[in-house]
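S., here's the first fold you wanted:
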Amino acid sequence: MKRIILLLLSLLVFLLFYGCGGGTVQQSDSGQIETGPVFRNVNWGMTPEEVQAVETAAFDGSYKNVRGNKGLHFKLKLFDEYPCTLSYEFNDSERLIIAFYSLGVKDISNRYETYQEIMALLTEKYGRPGGVAATVACWTTSRCYISLELESDYKIVEGQIVPPGSVLIIYTSHETEERFRQERQKEHKKNKEAL
């Protein structure tokens, strides 16, 4: 029974992440590749101190993720409407590789509507998503990979417990996303061999 559950979970993760690999590279209206900050006021590879110096949201503390790397939390209202936590994750060299918003939806019955509203806002900004599942949508731009997720169960994201009904918007560098993809492939292969 454990093997069947493990296989189904592996298959679900595989479908969610590999199904989101599509999308188009975003360029500015003039056709030039974007050169400003990749996310808010930051760029991949910045140090925690550099991120904290340019981030305008209210600082809410630092932490260590499950890999022991540094992370920073900020509080803000996304799209001037949704209270959320903004987190920045750094690698072993203390260079920025991931940023994500975590929106806790208080009224669980409205979580899907909130997810749809955020998807519409992201689609307006980044174009049509390259991959869409029931509760996951993905975009690929010239400088990052973006995933919008609606959590239906408790989940741990970068060492933080995310309760059901949370909406996550995760930005990763292309290099980080490729590394995660390779790790998922290895885990999938390992799980498959275990059966």
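And the second, which I think is the more interesting of the pair:
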Amino acid sequence: MSRKIAGAMLVLLVSVATSGAAQRAVGLPDSVKARRWALENELEGLAVIDRKVMIPMRDGIRIPADIYRPKDTSKKYPTVWVRTPYNFNYWDITNGLPRT
């Protein structure tokens, strides 16, 4: 690869990274913040939430997952666990509220 192409790719990469960071730094509208809090409060009212539980696999590796169990114990319900290879932080640090 020529230096000219490599330089152009580097400039493009830096400009994309900085524009993405600038977009994330912008605060969310109050309506979006209120909706996120309402959803989080509703979820916490319905379910027991265990975040970042380390689940052991057969090969010895442990994977983190969020586990959601219903608070209603009068019937049997399935337990939901969420696992993602991406950002596992449920908290939106930039905006100071839960992620959607």
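Why I say that: The chain has two helices and five strands. Strands lie at 47-56, 62-70, 80-82, 91-92, 97-98.

Talk tomorrow,
H.
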